[in-house]
Amino acid sequence: MRLTRVEGVDRVFGHLELEVLEGDGEIKAFFRVTHGARFIELTVKGRPCWEVPYIASRICGACSIAHYVASMRAVEHALGLDAGEWVGDFRDAVNMIQVAQNHLVHLAFLALPDYVGVQGLSDLKSRAGRLVINSMKLNTTCLKVIKLIAGRIVNPNTLGVGGLLKRPFKGPLLKATDYLRECEALAKEVVDEALALLKIPELRDPANNCMALKPRRAYLTTGDEILTSTGLSFKPSNYEEYLEEARLEYSNSKAVVLSGAPVHVGARARYELLKDYSRDLNAPKADLSNPFSNLIIKAVEIPYCITAAREILEDLARRTTDTVVDPPRDGGDGEGVGVVEAPRGLLIHHYVVSGKRVVNANIITPTEINAKHIEASAKALAESLVSDGRPLNAGELQRKLTMLVRAYDPCLPCVVHVSVVRGRKHA
Amino acid sequence: MRVIVNGKEVHVPEGETVLAALKKAGDAVPTLCFFGHMYREASCRMCLVELRNGKLVPACAYPVSDGLEVRTDTPRVREARRTVVEFILSIHRVRCWSCPRKGGSCELLKLATAYWVEGIPVCSSCPLYGEDCLVIKGEPCLGPITIAGCGDPCPGNGSPCIGCRGPVTRRDVLEAAAQFYVSNGVGLEDVLEVASMFWEGLPSYGVLKASLGRAFKKALGGGVD
What we know:
Largest sheet of chain A: 3 strands, antiparallel
Shape of chain A: globular
Strand content of chain B: 5-15%
Oligomer: heterodimer
Shape of chain B: elongated
Largest sheet of chain B: 5 strands, mixed
CATH superfamily of chain A: Cytochrome-c3 Hydrogenase, chain B
Number of strands of chain B: 5
Structural class of chain B: alpha+beta
Helix content of chain B: 25-40%
Number of helices of chain B: 7
CATH topology of chain A: Cytochrome-c3 Hydrogenase, chain B
C-alpha cells in the first residue's frame, strides 16, 4: 500500500519524487529521479582531454567549479601533470567561495522557509526580511569575487588543465580579498540568524555511515585520501574497489553504495570525519547522528569558507608568480581520478585517456551517493510517523519527508549525467 | 523652427539639420559617416529617420522646416537600418584579427549586434593583441569564424574560443580566416576538432565543413590576402 508520494518537490535543483510504500509490515522508500538524461559521460568520450573540463563543468550550473576542478585533476592525474602549489591553492579558494555561495542559496532561500513555516521566499521575506536581504547581498558578493578571479560566474575560464590560462594579477586578487573581508561580519550575522530559526526535527540516522575527502591542508581543500566512518581509508584511484554503482529500475539515476551499505556525503559527513580540521568552524552543539544536522553544518561552513578563501587569496597575492601555462597538446596514455569536496559532498571524475582523447569516462556525483541514504532516512522517518500501516497524520508525513529531502540538498541535473536507454547502460 | 521628435517638441534655428534637432531632444541615432561640419556626405544612411509622410531621410543632411515631424524608432526605420548594416558589412573587408579597432571600439560590431546582423567574428571584440593572440600562438581558437557579440569572456581569460555562438557563414570571411590559420600553423583538422563540439549538431555543419575545407585548400595553395 502506498503511504505517501511526494511529487515534484519544489525548492530543490531539478525534478524528483519520493514514494513511501508499506507491504508485509515493512516500509519501503523510493527516491526517484524524474529529471531527463543528460548524456555528459557520452559527450566527453572521444573529445581531446584538455577540452573535457569545459564540457564536464556544464553538468551543473550551481557547482560548475567543483566539476571543473575535479575534471582537471582527473585529466592531470591521467597525463601525469602537476599544476603546482599556487594553482592548487587558487582552485581551493575558488571552490570554497562557490561552496559558501551554494550553501547560502540553499540555506536561506530553499531550506529555511520550511523551518519558519512559510511557503517560499516571498513569504520568508515578510517574516525574516533582514536575513533574506543580507543573504542576497552576500550571494552577490560571492558571485562578484568568483567573476573577478575565475573569469565567469559559471563555467570559469581562467582555470585550465595543467595550470592557469591567464596570468594571475595581484590587483584582482587583493580586490577579491577586500570584498570577502567586507562580507565576513555579514556572513556571521546571517548564519547566526539562520541558526536561531533552524529547529531541526528529531531523527536518528539508520545508517550512520559517512564518507569524505581528507584535505591536504585546511578543511575543504583538496586531498588524496578518502575516509569513511567504517574506518576505511583509500586512495581516490582505488574507488572502484569500495564503491559500487548500481542502476535503479525506478529512477533515471544510478545509486552508489559503499561496500553494500548506504553512505552519506556532504557537510555533515565532512564535519564528522574531519574532526582534526573542523575546529575552525565553531559549530554549535548538535546531534550529528541526525541527517537534518547537515543544514547546521552547511550554515557554519559559510563564514568559514569566506574567511579561509580570503586567507588563501591574501597568501596567493603575496606570491604571484608566472604560472600561466600553454595548455598541453601532447596527450598521453593513462587513467586518472580527480576528487573534490563539492558543496553537496564527494565528487569523483574518472577518465581513461588514450593518445590525446578521453576514451572512457565515469562521473560519480554526491547526490548519486546520497540517493540510497535518503531512502534509508526516509524509511526511518516514515516508521516513526506510521502506526499499524497507516500514517498518523498524512500531511505531517508528507511535510517531514519533503523537509528531509531538502536537508540533503540533492542536485538532480548532476545525477542524470549518464544515460540509461532500455535498461542498457550507455556510458 | 519648431520640430516634433517622437512627439516631443523642440526649437532649433533655421538651416540646422534634423540631427541637431534629435540631439536637442535627446534622441540618439547611430551615425557612421557624420563628422560634424567637417564632412557631410550622408553616404552611410545609418541615421535614417521617418517623416510624417512615411519618407525615410538621413537626419544628418536633411534641413529642418517649421512643423516637421520625425520619428526615430519605427519598424520601417529599424528594417532600413538593418539593411544598411547588411550592405555596409557586405562590402566590408572582414579581417578583424588584424584590425586596430578590435577590442571593444568597433562601431560596426555595435551596430551589427544592435540590429541583429550576423557576420562579424569574435576577433572584433577580442582584447588579445599581437603575440598574445591565441591563433598566433598556434592554438585552434575559433575566434576568426565564430559570430561575435558574447563580449569575449573566453579569449579574454586566456582560454580559446569554442564557438558557442555558431559559425560565420560568409565565404570571404572563412577564406580570410583560413589564410590566418594557415599562416600560423593551425590545420583544418585542429579547427574542426574544436568546432565539432558545438557545431556538429547544426543542420548546416556539412556545408560549413566543405566550405572550410575549400577555404583551407585555397589558403594552402597560396592565395593572396
